[in-house]
Amino acid sequence: MSGAQMTSQATSTGPGRGLLLAAFVAALFIATGLFQSWTLALLIVNMALISSIMALGVNIQWGYAGLFSVGTMGFVALGGLSVVLISSAPAPGGWAAGGAGIVLGLAMGAATIAAAVMAASKMGPGRRRTVVVAAILIIGFFLFRAVFDPAVQAVEANNPATDGNLGGLGLPVLLAWPVGGLLAAAAAWAIGKAALGLRSDYLAIATLGIAEIILAVLKNEDWMARGVKNVISLPRPVPYEVDLQRSQGFVDWALSWGFDPVTASSIVVRLMYTGLFAVVLLALIALSQAALHSPWGRMMRAIRDNEVSAEAMGKDVTRRHLQVFILGSAVIGIAGAMMTTLDGQLTPGSYSPLRFTFLVWVMVIVGGSGNNWGSVLGGFLIWWLWVMVEPIGNWLMVVITSGMADGWLKAHLINSAAHMRLLTMGVILLLVLRFAPKGLLPER
Amino acid sequence: MDILNALVAFLNFVFIPGVAYGAQLALGALGATLIYSILRFSNFAHGDTMAIGTVFVILLTWGMQGAGVSFGPLPTALLALPFGIALTAMLLLATDRVVYRYYRRVKAAPVILVMASLGVMFILNGVTRFIIGTSDISFTDGERFILTAGDFRTWSGLAEGLAIRTTQGVTLVVAIIAVAALFWFLQKTRTGKSMRAFSDNEDLALLSGINPDRVVAVTWIVAAALATTAGTLYGLDKGFSPFTYFQLLLPIFAAAIVGGLGSPIGAIAGGFVIAFSEVMVTYAWKKVVTYLVPEEMAPSGLLQLMSTDYKFAVSFVILIIVLLVMPTGLFKGKSI
């Protein structure tokens, strides 16, 4: 027993292990740049930075407080929504068509829920309360529909081919990032109020549900962000490649270094994104590290490790859980807004829980639960794998089947190689969970 | 006023689909609740277990169809079902041996088991796509209808038709047989009793000489049978697509929790509660109401409470209500 402990001590202490792993991951990216292309490598780096922030958010919930939430996708999507609401231009005629009705309808819906919650908490339990609360909700629902529906129809009938929504506020896109965090935080507050303080499995099931609902809203409420018709060409915080290629100064600069201006422009644009994302990531890491090592962080870990004794010490466990759940969700929301900014479009059809919830969990577990740098490492490593497994799997399949006669089996195997991703991620998750449950960079 | 036509429209568009969907959910929820009560974790891989069980059945069905085997007017898939269950059971036993057994032995927290089930879910999902791809598959054959809308109209002389699809009838009959067999097994057989004892009080069960490994193995086999049956019936009725099965997780868990986690009767009741709420909230009532009210009061709108795309919201809202009002569910399951 002492031997096992000593080896784990020896491997977990000191910065050497972290640096070694970081160097290994960096080498993966450099190799991608050298052997494939630098634009591809930078593309993966940018998404890896965003993935790291998502993993950081999940780590705040799981690593700090032991909350098992699988609603990551929903918060990512809310962040994406904020980009449309903040930065896209207002749709011509959209607000005039039914903006007031929509706002009024939403306000009435919120008032109904508030009234029902108030009635439920003020009145004593009994049949009377049930009847009153049900009546408030039912009447409120029909009033809401009566105001909301015609307004929505009017807005969606306004230029449906290009708009059909209210559009955004036309503000700078960078403002959407904190707003995405706020949106996600608000949703997390509502869901946490209902689901926290129960068995851990319950939060998982409830968040699984809320993520699907957020996505359903995004897909179907066309007045908001055009639903599955997508919002494209969102404003960017960095210049466009074509503008760079047109600028004489840039072309001269690129040629003076011996670069092809077209390649140089796309690399420079991606590097700008990398810089922006890195600043956000580092700021969030700094904040998270400070929080983790503050008395608050110690309290969180105490609650995680033993809820009963923390409660006996007078800590309000449910309240702290709500707090940390909101914080983690806000971080995920910020990352979601950053991702939509990078994509330049919001496509609700592309969100899937396997990609946005469970993959981020794999990053956190592989990186090391409770360790912020571990989340970053996991984000980079797993994202690189996620992108690379498909070509590697394809290549493997071609090699494996090279001796086979052409036929349906060979074709099927080669075509199916694309599905290797999920398989690989599942195997990695199980292996890490089983043989290195503390992850690559264990919590110190 | 035309009560008969209204009733037929209600039966045709709400009741019959609701019963079939409810039976499918109930079987799914029974599997989830069984695993929860004996292995003590929420199995996130249950939806994908249903999917891969269905894939086995589909492959066997194709094989049988190729060999010229048919089940007369009934879907061939029913003949393939027992073999599909056997394959799924072997797969689940292997999964338990490779993944879950270790965590039981080290007495890991339930949440670690849930996470391991996430890994299993990834793998099963990948294997499913690997074997059969991602496109929708319809694998039902035989007679399409027990009762067609046209036949019903000529027979009754009503304006509304009533159609019962074979898959709907098959769903109900198979579900009743499966549930009856499960309850007989749990109540009357020695193994079933030992499973219930294990679920009620693990320590006491171990003390009285019940072999935990056997209980766990039997649980996986029963869960495989329930999941494969539920998946096959759902696939026969609505077509097979891998992603839908993953999305069934939410209504299945909602059904199990509404009924009371760990209570088999509760899982069945919960399945029907969720199914009927979903169908009734997302059904456009215009037709039924038009028959019931005088002509001048006929509704102009669809009278649909929520669009079909929000059916997840229905399971979810019921989940929240149950949680706030009666956390142990309808049938006093384990508190969550």
- The succession of helices and strands of chain A, N to C, reads HHHHHHHHHHHHHHHHHHH
User: How would the global form of chain A be characterised?
Assistant: globular
Which oligomeric form is depicted?
Answer: heterodimer
Rg on CA atoms of chain A, Å: 25 Å
Give a quick account of the main beta sheet of chain A: strands, pairing sense, barrel closure: none
The whole-angstrom Rg of chain B is 21 Å
Helix content of chain A: over 70%
Structural features, described:
The complex is a heterodimer of chains A (444) and B (336). Chain A is 77% helix and 0% strand. Chain A has 2 domains: 19-90 and 167-435, no CATH class; 91-166. Chain A is built from 19 helices and no strands. Chain A is globular and about 75 Å long. With 336 residues, chain B is mainly α. A two-stranded antiparallel ribbon of chain B has the order 1-2. Chain B is globular and about 70 Å long. Chain B starts with a helix and ends in an 11-residue tail after the last helix. In chain B, 47% of the residues are buried.
In short:
The complex is a heterodimer of chains A (444) and B (336). Chain A is an all-alpha fold and 444 residues long.
List keywords for this structure.
A: 444 residues; mainly alpha; 2 domains; disordered N terminus; B: 336 residues; 1% strand; globular
Helix/strand layout:
The complex is a heterodimer of chains A (444) and B (336).
Chain A: H1 2-12, H2 16-35, H3 38-65, H4 72-87, H5 94-122, H6 127-157, H7 176-195, H8 200-220, H9 222-225, H10 241-246, H11 248-256, H12 261-292, H13 295-305, H14 307-312, H15 317-343, H16 353-367, H17 372-401, H18 408-416, H19 420-435
Helix pairs in contact in A: 2-3, 2-17, 3-12, 3-15, 3-16, 3-17, 4-7, 4-8, 4-15, 5-6, 7-15, 16-17, 16-19, 17-18, 17-19
Chain B: H1 3-39, H2 46-66, H3 77-105, H4 110-132, E1 145-147, H5 149-156, E2 164-165, H6 166-188, H7 190-200, H8 202-207, H9 212-238, H10 242-247, H11 249-259, H12 264-282, H13 286-292, H14 311-325
Antiparallel strand pairs in B: 1-2
Helix pairs in contact in B: 1-6, 1-9, 1-11, 1-12, 1-13, 2-3, 2-4, 2-9, 3-4, 3-9, 6-7, 6-9, 7-9, 11-12, 11-14, 12-14
